[in-house]
């Protein structure tokens, strides 16, 4: 494969090779999907908003000692990131009960959790991304016990940092999903994106949802909510 060729296309992003074998170009798309791809739409402007929001979060985490794949934004829709082999796990951290946790443990949406809950899901569309524990992860050889421990520790640190940043902006961090990869030296690196597509954000004053739940639940004003998040983060054009 040559520089410029598409390496991978996902539901929300495309990845392209660059001249540097250790660097890939990520292009955010305007497409929105939910419920394992069953619900789809094109939301004009979402790609740019997520590129810009993800840039701010990854830069902030890097500035606060969380190594991650992010290098720099290069256009409204694109950023350069370190090339990693993505681990087939989604790491979810929850501060407040919402989404699938309501059904799993029977608590109602909005119930505060006494301490953050960390969950691992196996990234497999055909299986519907099932919840897995450490033994499943070992059985499937998805990550070593040490990598699982590291992912948990980093995810909890990310939670503390993001919660603090967002609280200052009157945003409650309800929950979020992270993905990790292994770089060329086999080192664990926080990767993928951090945006309203992958987090739940509630306005601290009104409880209004400012994330992908607006799309999942047909609440309308999806792009406007993402724009609100970017505005509060002090988002500025980076090109
Ligand atoms: O749907 P659920 O309640 O399990 O989602 C928990 C968190 O993980 C939410 O912030 C959701 O946006 C995120 N998530 C994600 N990608 C998935 C599943 C969940 O970004 N495939």
From TrEMBL:
Keywords: ATP-binding, Ligase, Nucleotide-binding, Purine biosynthesis. The keyword Ligase applies. Its EC number is 6.3.2.6. InterPro entries: SAICAR_synt/ADE2_N (IPR028923), SAICAR_synt_PurC (IPR033934), SAICAR_synth (IPR001636), SAICAR_synthetase (IPR050089), SAICAR_synthetase_CS (IPR018236). Signal peptide: none annotated. Pathway: Purine metabolism; IMP biosynthesis via de novo pathway; 5-amino-1-(5-phospho-D-ribosyl)imidazole-4-carboxamide from 5-amino-1-(5-phospho-D-ribosyl)imidazole-4-carboxylate: step 1/2. One of its GO terms (biological process) is cobalamin biosynthetic process. Residues 7-232 form the SAICAR synthetase/ADE2 N-terminal domain. CDD domains: SAICAR_synt_PurC (cd01415). Pfam families: SAICAR_synt. It catalyses: 5-amino-1-(5-phospho-D-ribosyl)imidazole-4-carboxylate + L-aspartate + ATP = (2S)-2-[5-amino-1-(5-phospho-beta-D-ribosyl)imidazole-4-carboxamido]succinate + ADP + phosphate + 2 H(+). GO terms for molecular function: ATP binding; phosphoribosylaminoimidazolesuccinocarboxamide synthase activity. Coiled coil: none annotated. It comes from the Bacteria. HAMAP family: SAICAR_synth. Belongs to the SAICAR synthetase family. PANTHER family: MULTIFUNCTIONAL PROTEIN ADE2 (PTHR43599), SI:DKEY-6E2.2 (PTHR43599:SF3). This is Phosphoribosylaminoimidazole-succinocarboxamide synthase. It comes from Paenactinomyces guangxiensis. The gene is purC.
């Amino acid at each position: 494969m040559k520089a410029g060729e598409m390496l991978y296309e996902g539901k929300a992003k495309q990845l392209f090779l660059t001249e540097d074998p250790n660097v890939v170009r990520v292009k955010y798309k305007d497409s929105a999907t939910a419920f394992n791809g069953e619900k789809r739409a094109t939301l004009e402007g979402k790609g740019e908003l997520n590129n810009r929001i993800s840039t701010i979060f990854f830069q902030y985490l890097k500035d606060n000692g969380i190594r991650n794949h992010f290098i720099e934004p290069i256009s409204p829709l694109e950023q350069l990131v370190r090339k990693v082999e993505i681990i087939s796990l989604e790491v979810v951290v929850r501060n407040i009960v919402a989404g699938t946790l309501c059904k799993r443990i029977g608590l109602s949406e909005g119930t505060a959790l006494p301490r953050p809950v960390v969950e691992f899901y196996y990234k497999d569309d055909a299986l519907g991304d099932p919840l897995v524990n450490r033994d499943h992860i070992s059985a499937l050889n998805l990550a070593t016990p040490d990598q699982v421990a590291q992912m948990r520790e980093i995810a909890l640190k990310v939670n503390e940092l993001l919660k603090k940043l967002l609280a200052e902006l009157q945003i409650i961090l309800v929950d979020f999903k992270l993905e990790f990869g292994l770089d060329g030296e086999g080192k664990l690196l926080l990767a993928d994106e951090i945006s309203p597509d992958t987090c739940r954000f509630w306005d601290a004053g009104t409880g209004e949802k400012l994330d992908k739940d607006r799309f999942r639940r047909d609440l309308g004003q999806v792009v406007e909510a993402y724009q609100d998040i970017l505005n509060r983060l002090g988002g500025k054009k980076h090109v």
